[in-house]
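I am writing to request your help with a piece of structural work I have in hand. I set the record out below, with my sincere thanks for your time.
___
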Amino acid sequence: MPYEGEFAQYKPLRRLVESERVQKLLGSYKVRTPSDNTNSLQILQPIQIQAGDWIPERLIAIDGSHAEVNIKNGFPGAEASYVTVACVILDVAKMQKLDQQRPVNPKEFKTIEKAESIDCALPGCNVISEGEKSAKDSLRKSIFEVLSAVRMCEDGESLLDTYEALLKYKPTTDQTGQTQKCPYEDCPQKNDYLRGDGQYTCSCELARSLYSTDALRIHERMNPAGTNGAIFGEIMQVWERLWMVHILRTLESKKWLSSLRRLAIILDGQLAVFGQPAWISQAIYQELCRINTVAKRFTEGKDILILGVEKTGTFVEHFENLDRKENGGFGNFPCQSVGLLTDSYIKQNIIFSDSTRPYGDATYFGRKFFYKTKCGARLVVTLPFLAPQHRDLTQAEQSHYPRLADAVGLLDKLVSSRFPNALVPLVSANAEAAIPLRLGNKVLEKLAKELMADNGR
């Protein structure tokens, strides 16, 4: 790494370009050609699908954002993260009515939305809460406290209760047979982590605080001497997906499951959880199966409708390549057609792998498909696993995707003209959650400075 103000020279660049080893390595890489994309399209065999005419009365869209800022507390590299997860409820019936009266007054259009959010500041490197001995312990406590404080209904369960319901599905060992260790590295007994509910104490003589949320293991990746954007991203993705399950469990506890006949939920991103807390994806799968079985008694046998929609990534890029013609334009993939993905197709064309385990086996609680809408928007969508047969990625039939016809019919109606391949609900949710990077950081740094000053009085 150069010193501040030092500029890179051309000598290392020339050395790399002329290196035999580099040339040999780059020359051995497999390169896909446009004809490979044509072959992939023939293998995929897009299916023309009859879109359903089901329209929900309400639609819930969930999206999150996080931004890291420097904290001036006397310690070098001190950092905090502002995390927000927005939940927007859209009145679909009113939206359709307004859509027929174009052009629509933006103020009038805003009346179809109601937004709620989880907003918090979490400690990062060198930020230590009162009563704690390290930044890692401060983060553990903060995660627990945020989940304890958030709930959909005042008299309903908290987000922590929802998490602890999912925790019951977690195996006692990981996939390698290892058990989780106590979060305190200096634990005198070097105990295994004692899983429990709420806040409790380690069984060693120091009897320090443990939390049920320690089972997420997010704190294990904390960098004590640098930025921690990756783990704050993991926290955000867990909260987005927890909030989705929380909504469904609240509807169940309030005996409102019949409302799912008229409700859909859209999540920004895949129906998956990555990183340290990936285990929770399989807990979500099991809980969704349970709730869906109960809900079908009140929805005339209809499955719940949950969609994960990706805006970027390798699947989005691959779909774009499939649709691109040799002259550079688009139109290879027919409108109102779906591409249903098998494990072998994914591994041979999108995420190269020779693993015998199905793609996403430990991280996904749903399966992907491509859909090109009536107006030509390309969408990469995940529908949830709601039964064991939905997980069979060796084949891809319409029956493996719960409510596929209703999902694509809804997507046709929700496409936004504001951005390419965008959906109205996610545009709204992102507007509530997104933190403007430059202006946002200045505002958040100022807020942190004021709060730290108040704390020092």
In short: The radius of gyration is 24 Å. The first strand starts at residue 47 and ends at 48.
